[in-house]
């Protein structure tokens, strides 16, 4: 026989315990053990007619108050009724009432909370106050008041306990849904034409129900206790029904002489309360991992833009999107803080406009503000037209004319739904659905258009089963469902590797060419958009500092910031060994950061006038369509000492 080396056996015991523990945890056996008493009584109660040895209401005064014996495993009560049978039927009644109360409370609470969380505003404030009031009231008093008014009985018992216990569910659901409000996923759904009811019912309630269910397992104990207490007070289930609280009342006078009357229902109530609480704790500790919320980032549709204030060059006749004098501000400590001002751009049919700038420059703000896709607190002014119509007043069906592709596809796609289900929904919202098979055919066609191989197979995949590039293609397929004339792509390739990035850019270019769509592509990388865009608007510190046809802006950059951006990335034809240059200083924050040009503090050719006068966008040397906002560009007469 082989011997263990000295000391090995000592350390192997904790290790073995750890292994068993780990195995129990992985297999879920620990949770099953914790839930066992609850399951036991649920099954016992459910099968009571089969398992109970006698009729729980059958009196036999000759067998009164018999102690436990093989004939009566838990003895008999003062009327000679079999206690085990009453315990099993009692489980049936107590747990059925508990289940009814939990169902009503959970459903009502989750729906109220989800609606309040989604709508926000005064609805949310009112619901929040009501929840606060209900939660702060002593539950048993509420129940007593309701039963006092309506009288005892099972229905009134359920109503009384539900009126007291719905509020925590509403609070949980409200918090969860409020956190999801404004997520890219919901923004995308709204843009695809999904109504409020559908968004709340299909997309917000399921994730809100998950934490509610965890709470419900803890609540089992509280409700079982509530049912028993009210029955114990004579306000719940009336005799001769076997109910655990009722059994306790009947056993109370015999506590000293016949312990088997009160102890079994007391132990059953305690076991179920403990099991419910422990189960709730275990689920709460382990159940949050696949949370949808973790993947969601904040932000939401907001305010309508108002008409333009400044004079701008006339828009091209085939312009699909015309944005004029867009300003965005957020409330801060000292009042509103502007993060974008005076932004104007347009994009023509079959053309791609790139909005470029460093991180925080305001390019995403410039692209999403016209569509109400910013944080709810954003105060947006300016005008945005989709063709000839104000975007702000656009009907939901017209909103489908705009598709949006967000940077973070994992946040847009619901991890619990297949790619096919996402696109199917977009197809139906766009009014292109039909019978299931017909919708799916359109879905597969769209997935194919977005360049996904084997669309029928991909449609059955969940988002996490696809690569980042494939998920972006799935988002593009969703956006295409509404046959949009305009596509907004917010940094669509920034999280992807270079090869996939190039393939996606090719796809966008192909869609522009084949479908004649206009696109606004947001990117921090001028080199990326150089392969794709027809025109460029360079954004710095919340203002457009240079705009124009791609060739003009990239080959003859007029603004020192644009030159800085171009020098910081590899350029075709650059001599071998050419070093990239970095720009000194930090990105400017908002148009109110300096009185003059926002870039002046970092600019190597700035003159004193640059810090005083905010430059306007004016035609640059190459053409009237190429404009830049710099006092130092050649067409201006500013001298190097700053005098004009
Ligand atoms: N909810 C908000 N509240 C306050 N300020 C905000 C909010 N959202 C954005 N900002 C500010 O607006 C400015 C522009 O942000 P924006 O997201 O448009 O920049 P960006 O150029 O797209 O940057 P990135 O590439 O990092 O997304 C930033 O200074 C940012 O801090």
UniProtKB/TrEMBL annotation:
Keyword vocabulary terms for this entry: ATP-binding, Cell membrane, Membrane, Nucleotide-binding, Transmembrane, Transmembrane helix, Transport
Compartment(s) of residence: Cell membrane; Membrane
Listed GO CC annotations: plasma membrane
MF terms in GO: ATP binding; ATP hydrolysis activity
Domain annotation ABC transmembrane type-1: ranges: 91-280
Domain ABC transporter span(s) in chain numbering: 323-566
Gene Ontology BP annotations: peptide transport; transmembrane transport
Membrane-spanning ranges: 32-52, 93-119, 126-147, 212-238, 258-279
Family of the protein in this entry: Belongs to the ABC transporter superfamily. Belongs to the binding-protein-dependent transport system permease family.
Official protein name in the record: Peptide/nickel transport system permease protein
Organism: Spongiactinospora rosea
Lineage of the organism: Bacteria, Bacillati, Actinomycetota, Actinomycetes, Streptosporangiales
């Amino acid at each position: 026989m082989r011997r263990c080396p000295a000391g090995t056996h000592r350390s192997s015991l904790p290790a073995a315990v750890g292994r068993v523990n780990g195995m129990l945890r992985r297999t879920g056996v620990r949770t099953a053990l914790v839930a066992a008493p609850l399951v036991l009584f649920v099954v016992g109660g459910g099968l009571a007619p089969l398992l109970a040895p006698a009729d729980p209401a059958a009196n036999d005064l000759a067998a009164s108050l018999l102690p436990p014996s093989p004939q009566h495993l838990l003895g008999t009560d003062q009327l000679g009724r079999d206690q085990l049978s009453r315990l099993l039927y009692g489980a049936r009644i107590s747990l059925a009432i508990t289940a009814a109360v939990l169902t009503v409370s959970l459903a009502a609470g989750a729906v109220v909370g989800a609606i309040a969380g989604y709508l926000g505003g005064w609805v949310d404030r009112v619901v929040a106050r009501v929840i606060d009031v209900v939660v702060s009231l002593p539950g048993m008093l509420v129940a007593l008041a309701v039963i006092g008014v309506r009288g005892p009985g099972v229905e009134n018992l359920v109503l009384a306990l539900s009126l007291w216990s719905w509020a925590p569910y509403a609070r949980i659901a409200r918090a969860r849904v409020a956190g999801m409000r404004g997520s890219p996923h919901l923004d995308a759904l709204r843009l695809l034409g999904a109504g409020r009811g559908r968004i709340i019912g299909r997309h917000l309630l399921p994730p809100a129900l998950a934490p509610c269910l965890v709470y419900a397992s803890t609540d089992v104990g509280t409700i079982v206790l509530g049912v028993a207490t009210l029955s114990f007070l004579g306000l719940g289930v009336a005799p001769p029904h076997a109910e655990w609280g009722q059994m306790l009342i009947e056993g109370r006078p015999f506590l000293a002489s016949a312990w088997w009357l009160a102890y079994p229902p007391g132990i059953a109530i305690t076991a179920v309360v403990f099991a419910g609480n422990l189960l709730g704790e275990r689920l709460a500790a382990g159940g949050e991992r696949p949370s949808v919320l973790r993947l969601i980032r904040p932000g939401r549709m907001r305010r309508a833009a108002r008409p333009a204030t400044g004079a701008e060059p006339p828009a091209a006749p085939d312009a699909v999107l015309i944005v004029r004098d867009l300003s965005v501000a957020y409330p801060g400590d000292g009042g509103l803080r502007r993060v974008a001002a005076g932004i104007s751009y347009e994009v023509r049919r079959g053309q791609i406009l790139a909005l470029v700038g460093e991180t925080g420059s305001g390019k995403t703000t410039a692209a999403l503000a016209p569509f109400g896709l910013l944080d709810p607190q954003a105060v947006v002014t300016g005008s945005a037209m989709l063709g000839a119509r104000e975007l702000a007043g656009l009907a939901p069906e017209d909103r489908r004319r705009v598709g949006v592709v967000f940077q973070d596809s994992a946040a847009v796609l619901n991890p619990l739904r297949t790619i096919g289900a996402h696109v199917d929904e977009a197809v139906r919202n766009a009014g292109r659905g039909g019978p299931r098979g017909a919708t799916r055919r359109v879905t597969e066609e769209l997935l194919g258009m977005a360049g996904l191989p084997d669309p029928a197979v991909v449609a059955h995949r969940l988002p996490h089963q696809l690569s980042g590039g494939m998920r972006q293609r799935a988002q593009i397929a969703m956006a295409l469902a509404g046959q949009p004339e305009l596509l907004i792509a917010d940094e669509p390739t920034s999280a992807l590797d270079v090869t996939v990035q190039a393939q996606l850019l090719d796809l966008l270019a192909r869609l522009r060419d084949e479908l004649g769509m206009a696109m606004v592509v947001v990117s921090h990388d001028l080199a990326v958009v150089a392969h794709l865009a027809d025109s460029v608007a360079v954004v710095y510190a919340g203002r457009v500092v240079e705009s124009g046809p791609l060739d003009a802006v990239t080959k003859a950059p007029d603004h020192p910031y644009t030159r800085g951006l171009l020098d910081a990335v590899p350029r075709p034809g650059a001599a071998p060994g050419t070093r990239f240059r970095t720009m000194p200083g930090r990105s400017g924050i908002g148009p109110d950061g300096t009185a003059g040009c926002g870039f002046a503090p970092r600019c190597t050719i700035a003159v004193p006038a640059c810090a005083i006068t905010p430059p306007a966008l004016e035609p640059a040397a190459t053409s009237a369509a190429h404009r830049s906002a710099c006092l130092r560009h050649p067409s201006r007469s500013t001298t190097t000492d700053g005098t004009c």
